Structures are given as structure tokens and as C-alpha cells.
Amino acid sequence: MPRKKRRNWGGCNVEKVRRHWRVRFSEDGKRKRLPDLFETEALAQRAADIVSARLRGNRHTGILEQPKACQVTLAELGDAFIEQRQAEGRDYLNDRSRWRKHLKPAFGKYLPQQVDDGLVMKFVREKLNDDELSEGTVTRCVHLLSALYERLVKNRRETFVTQNPVRLLSREDRASFKSRFDPRETPYLEDWQDVVRLIAALEDPVKTAYAIGVYTGMRPGEILGLDWTDVRVKRSPPMIWVHQQVTRNKLKGRTKDREHREVLIQHLLVPILEAWRKEQGGRGLLFGPVSGRGGMPGHPAQYLSPNTLRSELSKALLACKLPDITWYEATKHTFASHWLLRGRSIEHLAVILGHSDAETSRRYGHVRPNRMPESNFRVFEEEDVARVGPRGGTNWPTTGHVRTDSADCEVEKAELKQ
Questions:
Q1: I want to staple 12 with a disulfide (CB 3.0 to 4.6 A). Which of 25, 261, 361, 391 is the partner?
Q2: Are strands 12-17 and 20-27 parallel, antiparallel or unpaired?
Q3: What SS3 class is residue 13?
Q4: What is the pLDDT of residues 169-226, one digit of tens each?
Q5: Which residues contact 250 (CB under 8 A, 6 or more apart)?
Q6: Which helix (H) or strand (E) holds 20?
């Protein structure tokens, strides 16, 4: 038996752990490892070279500089991060509230390299147990903290931050604050006849806005930002060009996902749009303010208010004796659910709704067995079951010999009766 190679106790090795890299070494006959995980193999190898030089007693360690550490607290970095999100035109108000109320008091005093997965889980437990926050709110706070660290890691040449502590959370840790809400339980209009009755109960301009939302799945801000030049009814096929939206009474030249898209106009929506074009004039925005109220001093309202959409929808739902659901549930959720229940592609639905992947669209689909069409449960007919047997070469348990086509099966049945 060959002699086992003697271990070099002064050496180090780099190993991959999931998506990160770890440095292992031996010192004084004991196996050890660095407590930090590294985002890239190059950073881990650099740290391993420094440890190897120290273990060998090499005095020329000045050649290998120690990794620099960030000396700015998360309070300053987080404030700058929120300001940057505001400059990018994102919906920063909710993020700013979560940062100031929850994240900054918990992590503001620490340096970025001092926060690990244990400190993140301590924050989660305190918010769930002591502050009694919902799992959804805690999840959004953790996602915001992760976004901050991702920005720091991306600019690590300036920040010297190399790892995101949120990425170190195990699956069990993430499950402890995962929201228990099932998006498939979100209410929507299950009967399309209710949608037709609801459109008839509404009055313009809310009627046309609701029809666009329920026939295209567009977001309310995108509907309010539509211009008549974006509605191309005469085109074949007719399309709506979605490239801007109204947010907080301001028109932004980009959508939520910052990507432009084309949405197909259903044939039932065409006469509704043509009638509204004749009444409105067909120039400028489709939906302007319905009254002189709204806006701010010196800045009158320029767009139809989302509050008007919600209030008029609630009145129409009450008149039709339907459950009081939100605008999103009555439009986008209803459109996506009926799209999937009619057997259409979820990938195409993701493109129409402006989602980056199909998993996000699946939350709007409400696809459950008790809501599937009856035809979905008759995938295999009797003759298909008779034709396909298990791998043993025998057929499914039946009485008599099973033939390969339906005509022969009828003959077989007649022979058995005789």
C-alpha cells in the first residue's frame, strides 16, 4: 500500500461552498477556516496567500497587501442608496420608510463587513416576535437590505465589500419569514359574464379605463399614461404601445420594469376604444382629470386620479352585487386567470404583463385543480389507456383481450356478449 502523502500544515486550500468560496488551512495541528466567505475565487485565493505567508513565517508579507475594509457605517451608505434610488426614478418612498423605520435602527451602527447571516436572522426574529410585523413586511425589508449589499458588492473597488450576508441565509432561515399568503387565493372575477356586466355598469372615462385593464392586463399607471398615438387600432393586428406611466400625478417616460412592450388589443375592446375616441377627440392623453379638483396649489391635476378609478369601481361592484375587490384584482388578476384557464401560454402572458419571468405571472394565474376546465381532466381517453400499457409488456387490467383500435374494440365487445 503506498504511503500516504504527508500533509503540508503550512498550506491553504480554497474550496467552493454553494455560490461562494472558503479558505481552509491548518495551524498547530488543527484544521481551521476563515470565517468570511468570498464572492469570487480570486478574492479567496488572495486571502489564502496571505494566510500561507503568515503560517510560513514569511516577513515579506508587505508584498501581499491586506484586504482593505470599509470604514463607512451602513447608516451613511443606506442613506446614499435611498437617494440614488430616488434619482433613478424608482418608487423609493416605501423603501425609504422601511429603511428609516426598521433597517437603519438595526444595522446603521455597523460597518458592512460586520453584518453576517446571524445578525440578519436576529433582526428577523425581533421584527416577527417583538414588533409583530407580518412576514411580507419582513421579507421586503430583507430584500431591501440585500439590494443595498448587492450595490456595495458591485462597487467593491470603492466600497471594499465582497459578500452579501443575505445570500448566506439557509433555506430553513428563509422559510422562517416566508409569507404564508397564497397568491392563488387572491379573489378575481371568475365568471366572464360578471366582467361584461361590470363594464356596462361603469361610466366613461372609468368604463374605458377598466375595459383596457381587463382586456390587456395593463397596470393602472400605464393606462393613465396612454396617449392616443400609442393606441394603434388600425394596425394589423391592433396593438397598444406601452412605454410610460403615471406615478403620483407625474408622467414618467418609462414603465415599472423599464422596458417598452406591445400589447395586443382584443377584438371586443376595439369598439369601446373607438367610441371613446369619438367622444374624447382622439388627441393627447386618453384620460384627463374628470373635475377641477385635485393636484396641488399652482399645479392643477393633469391626469385621471387612481382614487377615482377605485371609488367608481366599488360603486359598480355594489350595483352588480359582486364582492368588493381591488382594481388590480378586477383587471390584471382577472385577465391573467382567464388567459391561463383557457389554455394559453404562460410565457406569452409574461410578455403581455411586462414580467421578467413566467414565475411572476404564475402568481396572477390562480391556477388550481378546482378551477381548471373539465376537459383538462380527460387527457387520456379509454382507448389511449388501453393502447398504452406498463413496461412489463402487459396491458392495464381489463376483461378480455384489448385490441389496438376503437373499431376492433367494438367487435370484441360484441363477441363477448354472444
A1: 25
A2: antiparallel
A3: strand
A4: 888 988 888 877 777 778 888 888 999 999 999 998 899 999 999 999 898 888 998 9
A5: none
A6: strand 20-27
**Grid cell at residue 415:** 363477441
User: How far is residue 80 CA from its own chain's centroid?
Assistant: 25
Cβ neighbourhood burial of 370 (10 Å; 0-12, 13-18, 19+): exposed
Cβ(209)–Cβ(304) below 8 Å: yes
pLDDT in tens, 62-88: 444 555 677 889 999 999 999 888 877
pTM above 0.85, yes or no: no
- b/e map of 204-229 (b: 16 or more CB within 10 Å)? ebbbbbbbbbbbbbbbbbbbbbbebe
- Edge to edge, the sheet with strand 261-264 lists 231-232, 239-242, 261-264
- Tell me the helix, strand and coil percentages in the chain, rounded to 5: 50, 10, 40
Determine the distance from the C-alpha atom of residue 88 to the mean position of all C-alpha atoms in its chain, rounded to a whole number.
20
Backbone angles phi, psi at 402, to 5 degrees: -100, 125
Give the distance, in angstroms, between the CA of residue 402 and the centroid of all CA atoms in the same chain: 50
Pick from 357, 365, 312, 307: which is nearest to 340 by CA? Answer: 365
Looking at the DSSP assignment, which residues form a beta bridge with residue 242? Answer: 261
Whether the upstream peptide bond of residue 237 has omega within 30° of 0, thus cis, is: yes
Q: Which parts of 244-360 are beta strand (E)?
A: 245-247, 250-252, 261-264
Grid look-up 447571516 returns 117
Q: Which residues of 243-255 are buried (b: 16+ CB within 10 A; e: fewer)?
A: bbbbbebeeeeeb
Residue closest to 339 by CA, chosen among 323, 311, 321, 362? 362
**N- to C-terminal Cα separation, the chain:** 79
**Helix spans in 56-134 (H):** 74-87, 92-98, 104-107, 117-125
Classify the C-alpha dihedral 318-324-326-331 as positive or negative: negative
